Amino acid sequence: MNDTIRLLRAHRSIRKYKNDPVTDGHLQQIALAAQAAPTSSNIQAYSVVAVRDTNRKQVLAGLAGNQKQIEESPLFLVWLADLNKIQTAVRLHEDSKLHQNTELFLLATIDATLAAQNAVIAAESLGYGTVYIGGIRNNPGAVSELLELPPLVYPVFGLCVGVPDQEPDIRPRLPIGAFLHEEMYQNGRVAGAIEEYDATTRTYYATRKGGGKGGETETSWSREMVRRFDGGRLRGHMRSFLQDRGFDLN
């Protein structure tokens, strides 16, 4: 492995941070690395709001499901899919409404995601720890109001950044055979790979340190998937919220 691959494979979600700030210089470097990510047709349909204010982080933590790591991180980045800037660019030349469809929505969301992952890699290379916060979509309307987001912009997820104050175990991933398919999707081997992974995750959950409670001997990855997705629609409010924000999903 080279240093880049070693860094990528050492990734862990960090939820406890020291009081050290993220310097302005490092924030600029993280942001510039994010902007260097691939973007479809150079549309750059993403933005990010950097939040350091203690009160604002406290409100965001509550809106995201009382996730204390948002309050405790010195820097919280809210990543945005941003079609407002595309609409603004169009109106510099003609007074017309941006033509939208689901594909354009996907492009903006993917752009934001690619940029955010570049930011994670940059932050970790500078010695910081990170964790994504999907809970920012629990109350996307209130988040949008708090951050004064214009129409055609929505919060995709948040990202805590700070100097780690914990050393959790690296969470094992599915066997590569359940992920890497050559030429065609090999569906026949997926169930076996999941069963193999269940055995691995049972051990992980029972013995892990620094990122969760150990002793969870009856927990496995497939059981976790049942728990997460067998209870109905996940964040079913998102479609109506996006339509209210001006996104056309047809």
UniProtKB/TrEMBL annotation:
One of its GO terms (molecular function) is FMN reductase (NADPH) activity. Residues 9-162 form the Nitroreductase domain. It comes from the Bacteria. Keywords: Flavoprotein, FMN, NADP, Oxidoreductase. Signal peptide: none annotated. CDD domains: NfsA-like (cd02146). Its EC number is 1.5.1.38. The keyword Iron does not apply. PANTHER family: OXYGEN-INSENSITIVE NADPH NITROREDUCTASE. Belongs to the flavin oxidoreductase frp family. This is Oxygen-insensitive NADPH nitroreductase. The lineage of its organism: Bacteria, Bacillati, Bacillota, Bacilli, Bacillales.
